[in-house]
Design brief:
This protein has 471 residues and is of the alpha+beta class. Helices cover 44% and strands 10% of the residues. The chain is built from 16 helices and 13 strands. The strands form five sheets. The chain has a four-stranded antiparallel sheet with strand order 1-13-12-11, with no helix packed on it. A three-stranded antiparallel sheet has the order 6-7-8. A two-stranded antiparallel ribbon has the order 2-3. Strand 2 and strand 3 form a beta hairpin. Helix 2 packs across helix 3, helix 6 packs antiparallel against helix 7 and helix 9 crosses helix 10. The radius of gyration is 26 Å and the shape is globular. The two termini are 27 Å apart.
Length: 471
């Protein structure tokens, strides 16, 4: 989501801190160059080993096969990695020194990291070779300005858009692979993985997260718990004996286990349940209906363009229409088909209207601090320019910030300004600048022509609004 940092003029920051940060930036760039050179050496070693393979009296293909096995074992020992890991590194090196040479060049120049390069290679596996050049070009355009988390989503969207097969066909094929996997881990722990339809997985995650939040609220209201701001841990026991203790992540794990095992409030082993009472008395509150963006043509069946499942990415048209029919409520937002910006909004006022807040959450999806991925629904809506300082309650002066980064903005030397179309320019205490782009605009398809000029004049209130906003 963020761009490479740039140094603002006349920052007036501490020279020692500046030197530390400059060394880290330089070191990160040098590390990327070193990793690129390592890939070149791996590919060169493999090619050379195959070229000078000793004939063993068998077929040439057999000689090449054993030459590859031999150099793989030797490289694994040299780099101190497992041979299975080395097989992956050899594949990556072959791709980067072959088809994806532009990606290797960007890695060598430090404009992307090795994790960006691996995301490109992993996504390219699902595309036919004829599309690799176009895919790489579009992916690199995103990789230069995004962190790995945001790029993972962006590269998936590019892959799905370029794939020649219909998304519905790929969904049907992948659905046959749904399964549950148990993975042992150390210290008496284990991982439990569910591979299933995206809309179901997202609904499960949302429901468990809401239950964990409610459990913390019940514990706090019933026992006046002490909250640790550093860890987010809340401890307390409700009047019904239901314990809501631990961090939000720990509660999610406990609640998911209880739901899967079918444990009642107060399990047989004597432990108290973590599931809040509201989950039993009013289960309809936690019916998880994911947020969905679907074009009107897709909705009425005249187009099969994929819809957007928030928190996941593109889904096929049939699944999207099915989710729409199951939704208890629908909110209509008219947007520009090119970049997703709103065509109409509510009048400005100090208190944000529900429709305006709904749009800001839809536009941003996550906290807008550089690198933060906390969901918008669990964050706060902030006036970029404070109301008391002349800021307006309009789309061009609002952005989503999680509680931690909202506090950081108001209690540190971090500064932020809107620069048009929802883009935010953050300036660190050391004077380095980072740009963050709204998710709706960031993941919009590339424009056919030159982009519109961005101007800070967008902070001015609109001249006229419709009597009935289209939400």
């Amino acid at each position: 989501m963020e761009m490479q940092p740039t140094q603002a003029s006349e920052s007036g920051s501490d020279p020692v801190l500046d030197a530390d940060l400059a060394e880290l930036i330089s070191g990160a760039s040098a590390e990327c160059a070193l990793q690129a050179e390592r890939y070149r050496r791996i590919d060169s070693a493999v090619r050379r080993a195959v070229a000078i393979a000793d004939p063993l009296g068998g077929r040439p293909s057999l000689d090449e096969q054993f030459a590859r096995r031999s150099i793989t074992a030797e490289l694994a020992l040299v780099l101190r990695v497992h041979e299975r890991t080395m097989v992956g590194l050899i594949y990556e090196a072959g791709q980067l020194c072959g088809t994806f040479t532009n990606t290797l060049a960007e890695l060598s120049g430090g404009t992307i990291t090795v994790r960006h390069a691996r995301e490109i290679l992993a996504a390219a596996v699902f595309l036919p070779p004829a599309l690799h050049v176009r895919f790489e070009r579009e992916a690199l355009g995103k990789a230069r300005t995004m962190n790995v988390s945001a790029f993972h989503k962006a590269v998936a969207r590019i892959r799905d858009r370029l794939h020649p097969d219909a998304l519905a066909e790929r969904v049907a094929t992948s659905r046959a692979d749904r399964r549950l996997v148990f993975e042992p881990d150390a210290d008496g722990m284990a991982w439990l993985h569910l591979y299933l339809e995206a809309e179901k997985a997202l609904a499960i995650s949302t429901r468990v997260g809401d239950l964990a939040t409610e459990a913390q609220k019940e514990a706090a209201e019933a026992a006046g718990p002490e909250a640790d701001e550093a860890t987010g841990e809340v401890t307390g026991e409700t009047a019904d004996g239901i314990l809501g203790s631990g961090t939000h992540a720990q509660l999610e794990a406990d609640i998911a286990a209880e739901l899967l095992l079918g444990l009642p409030a107060g399990s047989p082993d004597g432990e108290s349940s973590h599931i809040p009472t509201l989950a039993f008395s009013r289960p309809e509150v936690f019916v998880a209906v994911p947020k969905l963006t679907i074009g009107i043509d897709t909705l009425i069946g005249t187009s099969e363009e994929p819809a957007e499942l928030h928190g996941y990415g593109p889904i096929d048209a049939d699944t999207a229409r099915r989710l729409v029919t199951q939704a208890p409520t629908l909110h209509r937002i008219l947007t520009d088909p090119l970049d997703g910006t709103p065509l109409q909004l509510d009048p400005t006022q100090y208190r944000m209207s529900k429709s305006l807040r709904r749009w800001i959450l839809y536009r941003d999806e996550t906290c807008r601090f550089p690198g933060c991925t906390r969901k918008a629904e669990r964050s706060e809506t902030d006036h970029t320019r404070a109301w008391e300082n002349g800021g307006l309650t309009v789309e061009a002066n609002l952005a989503v910030l999680c509680k931690k980064h909202h506090r950081l903005k108001h209690n540190s030397r971090w500064r932020v300004e809107q620069v048009g179309r929802g883009n935010l320019r953050w300036t660190s205490p050391g004077g380095r600048e980072y740009m963050t782009v709204p998710s709706r605009i960031q993941h919009a398809p590339p424009r056919a022509g030159p982009p519109d000029a961005e101007s800070a004049s967008a902070l001015e209130p609109p001249a006229r609004f419709p009597d009935t906003p289209p939400f």
